[in-house]
Amino acid sequence: MTERLESREKVTGAARYAFEYPAENVAYAAAVQASVGRGEIIAVDTEAAMALPGVLAVLSCENAPKLSDPPDGELALFQSRTVSYRGQFVAAVVGETLETAREAARLVRVEYASEAPDVRLRTDHPGLYQPGKVNPVFPADTEQGEPEEVFNNSAVRVDVTYTTPAEHNNPMEPHATLALWDEHGHLTLYDSTQGASTVQSMLAKTFGLEPSHVRVMAPHVGGGFGSKGIPKPNVVLAAMAAGAVGRPVKFAVPRQQMYATTGYRTPTIQRFRLGADTDGRLNAILHEVVEQTSTVKEFAEQTATPTRVMYQAPHRKTSHRLVALDVPTPSWMRAPGETPGMYALESVMDELAVATGIDPIELRIRNDTDREPESGLPFSSRNLVACLKEGADRFGWAGRDPATGVRWEGRKLIGTGVAASTYPAYMSPNRATARAEPDGTFTVRIAAADIGTGARTALTLIAAETLKANLGDVTVELGDSAFPRASVAGGSSGTAGWGTAVVRACEALRGKLNGAVPPEGLEAEADTTAELKAREEYARHAFGAQFAEVEVDADTGEVRVRRMLGVFAAGRIINPTTARSQFIGGMTMGVGMALLEESVMDEEFGDFLNRDLAQYHVPACADVRDIDAAWVEESDPHLNPMGSKGIGEIGIVGAAAAIGNAVHHATGIRVRRLPITPARLLQDL
């Protein structure tokens, strides 16, 4: 096991984050948010703001420079008078100090012609439509056989609807940027991002620059969970402000403003129908999803896609319907699609287990498959059953009484639940260089991002193993768009994609080494694009099983998770220390999803009501009493040179369902609307 290589830098404060980089003569920006949920800007009054000492500029639709060709509608900052949602950035103030900028922002007066916003997601909305694809490139709908007819004729039928609320990512480090323009018109950004290369290309297009004239640096990032996967308006705001005042500008999105401007998980309404024989074998699966996007850009969460992967049934149907509302644009949040989709699927599988009288683990085993049900592709490896069995042994599942609402400890009801997990083993093309130094050490460079996952450590281990060198003799440099282009830290694809490029670069370097290294050093590079295209066709996924034990206070409805266990099959585990951290981190977020997290929309004003961590609740240490993660040994030759699958996201998948199933086992009450709060339990307790 290897500890994080940058751990000392982080605990001593030597590791710098975006807002902390020094810059000479730096100024600060503060944003003004729209106070209406829909409308047009009539006028922007900046007189009071500009009169405040220390104010350098106020930018809005009335004076902002024209952007070139923003590839994302959310980046078209101040390019229109249209207000698409409440909280949208409509102006920005630049000041000598942060305090000055924020005070001046409060003095900017914006006059609107407003309309009532349409912000409520519902299944009968007249604007519902079928998107052309769901994230990233999956078909919106699939159908095989005669699912409706077979479901109606099944011996056992379950027809239920589950809903999940909007949820916000809330990384510890807010979205922050330091922007600097030089005398040649080149732009440098220190940005809190999950992908320096992505920010480089998108900002170059937005400002009409050559990509080589934009440099993005992000060696340390304080979390992202998907919200920093693509640039958000804060990056454009900082760059635009720096150009306007001719000085470096820092801008960090305050926590309260993040809820409107940095993305969130879309709410979902999911109707599930399962048809089965009396022995629990599925013959029909129908999964229909309704979710929202904004009027600014389309983002279609791939909520039904895990249903296409998990269980065999000859008759199947999945669909996604989208409605563009006057709301901020949804975006990626840890395990997008799989998290809400598997919550509903694994909850309804529990309902089927109850309806058939079959143990929930046995039901899943009976419906296991060696081929991806809809594509027909063989799995490169699928050890779901091994995870279920190993987890059952570790958790003490044997002898569980299936009866609900019968196990008491004082005034507390006790229950246990299980759910399966899955996540695709994605991989993207990447580039890397490996260099042998004259002193016998090695330097590897790739524009990857370590957002707290331990990527720097994992890549160093991979490089050292390939080079057959001591770990201390290898340095991996990342987080800089000047390095070879890298894919985003998202989709649990980082280690697989970056690691493959690192392996190939190190292999190429070893092929060049022949005796002493010349004084100027020796370097080799790799590009994995062709290798990725030549891969054989397999369905590549990680799998897992989640177990939870809960207690429910019969008087207050309060739910406590007593213990959780996750067992995963994710290929070769590169570094057990950081891997366990990732699994447990995901499971902890699953506790939040099940019991705490909910962004509440004010339908009159079109704004999220809870906009800070005092009102948007996430799990604390006291909420996670006993949590553990383990994995089964898995060898999969069809993945990458390391034999690894992504682990950053599968930990959250299924966790909320396991808790919800445990609550049902404890109480006999099925809560189909997250989060499971005392108010939603007490009415039936």
Q: Please, could you describe this protein's structure?
A:
Helix content is 25%, strand content 24%. It has 685 residues and is of the alpha+beta class. It is built from 16 helices and 26 strands. The protein has a seven-stranded mixed beta sheet with strand order 3-5-1-12-9-10-11, with helices on both faces.
Please state the average pLDDT score: 97
Biggest sheet: strand arrangement: 3-5-1-12-9-10-11
The major β-sheet equals: 7 strands, mixed
What is the share of helical residues? Answer: 10-25%
Distance between the termini: 47 Å
> Total number of β-strand segments?
26
Structural class: alpha+beta
Catalogue the unreliable spans.
none
Total DSSP helices? 16
- Cα Rg: 26 Å
Shape estimate = globular
Give the DSSP E fraction (strand runs of 2 or more residues).
15-25%
Give short descriptive properties of this protein:
single chain, 5-stranded mixed beta sheet, alpha+beta, 7-stranded mixed beta sheet, about 675 residues
